């Protein structure tokens, strides 16, 4: 995108936001998933009859944080296996509450685990525990409806089913994701950035993201951070209970070290590391070291409170960037976090 100088907060920012959101909706309403998903791309699908252990090993080896599940009996995709499932299994294994023993992971099918999950977590305040039909969209749906489906159901992606009446073959076309939608939208905004003055506004003046209380900004949810010495299980509980995908990891002085995400738990699937450790004894620092050993060091994506909305959207539209941690420039003290979901939620109002 073209760089534009930041614009100070305006008394008419409310009107600016309303006009901008209307234009964004117009763009998304007039385009479908065919504008963001290549029809010829490949997609991984797992048989729901696969043993849990094998399924998670495949997910790790292929670098997948979630994958659709195929039910041969029904002849369609009936669910999704996610990193959250792996977390829930590990929590029960390591807390000695019988659901699956280590040896049972060799034989226990994914579909059986899904049923067990409902039984053991059905009454708990854990995301995704209610039995419900598979959330999906059709290839004829407009991008605004697709984005709203993802946000409102608190999921990271949604299966796209073919709307054709021809029922032969697999009905699944692909997965729709927020990164794909935001990248497409940014390309449209880039064509005429001067037509959207709010893009020059600093994010500190825009209701987007989750912010620390010390910034004086109101947020719909509490900003969570974790120290390196904190138990990983506590960090994972925060992620599941708050229905968030990541948490900033800070040093003793509050400066940003890294971000731990739900998908990082898949590093424990490599060579069955989870079977050789005590999850209750594992610290966040230990977990990050395991992550680095498996996947190498990574960049922690950040921005400043003075960054413009244009700069933030531009960063979030880069493949692999799912969130930006807002930091103070000199101290790297964590001020807030802006996720892809935050960005799309703001854009759609």
Automatic annotation (TrEMBL):
PROSITE patterns: CBS (PS51371)
Pfam families, alphabetized: CBS
InterPro entries: AMPK_gamma/SDS23_families, CBS_dom, CBS_dom_sf
Domain CBS: 39-99
Top-level taxon: Eukaryota
Swiss-Prot/TrEMBL keywords: CBS domain, Repeat
PANTHER family for the chain: AMP-ACTIVATED PROTEIN KINASE, GAMMA REGULATORY SUBUNIT, SUCROSE NONFERMENTING 4-LIKE PROTEIN ISOFORM X1
Protein name per UniProt: CBS domain-containing protein
Natural source organism: Triticum aestivum
């Amino acid at each position: 995108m073209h760089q534009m100088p930041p614009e100070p907060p305006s008394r008419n920012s409310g009107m600016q936001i309303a006009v901008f959101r209307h234009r964004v909706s117009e763009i998304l309403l007039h385009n479908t998933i065919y504008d963001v998903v290549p029809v010829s791309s490949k997609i991984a699908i797992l048989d729901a009859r696969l043993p849990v252990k094998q399924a998670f090993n495949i997910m790790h080896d292929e670098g997948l944080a979630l994958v659709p599940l195929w039910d041969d009996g029904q002849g369609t995709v009936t669910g999704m296996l996610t990193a959250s499932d792996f977390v829930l299994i590990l929590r029960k294994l390591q807390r000695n509450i019988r659901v699956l023993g280590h040896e049972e992971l060799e034989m226990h099918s994914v579909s059986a685990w899904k049923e067990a999950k409902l039984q053991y977590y059905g009454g708990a305040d854990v995301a995704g525990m209610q039995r419900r039909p598979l959330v999906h969209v059709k290839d004829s749906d407009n991008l605004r409806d697709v984005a709203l489906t993802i946000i409102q159901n608190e999921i990271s992606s949604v299966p796209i089913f073919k709307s054709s009446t021809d029922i032969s073959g697999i009905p699944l076309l692909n997965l729709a994701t927020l990164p794909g939608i935001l990248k497409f939208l940014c390309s449209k905004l880039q064509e005429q950035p001067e037509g959207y003055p709010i893009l020059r506004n600093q994010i500190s003046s825009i209701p987007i993201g989750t912010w620390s209380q010390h910034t004086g900004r109101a947020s719909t949810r509490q900003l969570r951070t974790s120290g390196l010495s904190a138990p990983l299980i506590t960090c994972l509980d925060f992620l599941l209970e708050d229905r968030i995908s990541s948490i900033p990891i800070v040093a003793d002085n509050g400066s940003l070290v890294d971000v731990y995400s739900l998908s990082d738990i898949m590093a424990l699937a490599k060579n069955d590391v989870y079977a050789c450790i005590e999850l209750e004894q594992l610290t966040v620092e230990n977990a990050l070291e395991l992550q680095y050993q498996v996947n190498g060091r990574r960049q922690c994506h950040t921005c400043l409170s003075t960054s413009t909305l244009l700069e933030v959207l531009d960063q979030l539209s880069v493949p692999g960037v799912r969130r930006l941690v807002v930091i103070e420039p000199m101290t790297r003290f964590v001020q807030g976090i802006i996720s892809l979901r935050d960005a799309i939620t703001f854009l759609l109002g």
